[in-house]
Amino acid sequence: MRKITFITTVLNDEEGINGLFDALMKQSTQPAEIIVVDGGSKDNTLAKLESYLDKFALFKIIQAPNANISQGRNIAILNASYPIIAVTDAGCRPDKNWLFEITKPLLDGSEIHAVSGKIISETSSVLEHYSGLLSIPDHTTKEQEELFYGRGSAFRKILWEQVGGYPEWLYTAEDSLFALAANKHGFSIVHNPNAIIFWRPRNSLRKIAKMFYLYGKGNGRIVWGGEIKGALYWLRNHGLLFLSFLLGFVYPFFWLATACLALYMYKLIALPSLIRIRKIDNDWRRELYVPLIIFIRNFASNLGYLSGFIEYKRNPIFKENLDKYLGN
Question: Would the pLDDT of 277 be above 80?
């Protein structure tokens, strides 16, 4: 047993509790401490958590009604007894060697401060399958290589202290900003593809749209991950596509414009991802599902970005908090 504190936050997630904690019981390396912060669950989540109290050496449940994810994680880390923090979300299922692999670079040398792991989607439908393939971070890219997410990562408590904790004024994109701040402070971040977390993607188009809307809104609030001109450009294209389609019922020649614009958007936003998916997936249904998910994701995330950006501009507290956080 190593000096590691495992943390997670939960809220009305009784279905995800068993998968996570059953997997933790099977870890090749056990955490010295587990801290779970419940944000005010109304279902059977607390009862399920309490059923695991006697199965780990040190298991703490902290109730924090109305706490968001950032607040919950900060509460957990504040109460952590050990210098290395491992984190994932309820609903995820860590591989049996995940805790060993996600903390190995931290335990092997003091020059590493944070570690990201590999996310593998665990699916039961065609939609979930392609949603997962399109949602998993690609840590081979420069943008992603220095980020670590709350879905599966580990870091030193001193990093959390010096960065100023997770940004509690953000509802989404909080882990992206946390990682960005850690990078700005000069902390060393590495990716370990052997630290595997299995994750269940959203199982409906509505849930996919909501997820990316919230992601986009979070990015808009911190003006990161894109520019407002880009969001407006793509929202305009979506608007024109929808308008030309409706006008086609009155003036059918507008459907030609609809087809041309759809082809243009397909080429720019769907085809690059489709080419990548074709290399790893042989199912012909990818040709339908990938463009559909991409179009919905593009519209929802850009709409969310616009909403978050408007809040950023209208409410000075977002800019003040951002400047304070990154300049801490």
Answer: yes
Residues 225 and 176 sit within 8 Å (Cβ to Cβ): yes
Question: In terms of domains, do 310 and 228 share one?
Answer: yes
86: which residues sit within 8 A by CB, 6+ positions away?
Answer: 4, 5, 6, 7, 31, 99, 102, 103, 153, 154
CA distance 236 to 251: 21
Residues 94 and 142 in one domain: yes
Confidence band, pLDDT 50/70/90 cuts, at residue 142: low
Mind listing the pLDDT tens digit for each residue in 224-268? 656 799 999 999 999 999 999 999 999 999 999 999 999 999 999
Range of the structural domain that residue 76 is part of = 2-199
Q: Is the same domain home to 77 and 192?
A: yes
Distance CA 328, CA 110 (A): 23
Task: Please report which helix (H) or strand (E) contains residue 88, including its range.
Answer: strand 84-88
Give me the torsion for CA of 311, 317, 320, 326, rounded to 10°.
-70
The helix or strand, by DSSP H or E, that contains position 216, with its residue range, turns out to be helix 205-221
Q: Which residue has the tokens 């769907």?
A: 270
**Helix H or strand E segment including 99:** helix 98-108
Asked if residue 313 and residue 249 are part of one domain, the reply reads yes
pTM given for the model? 0.90
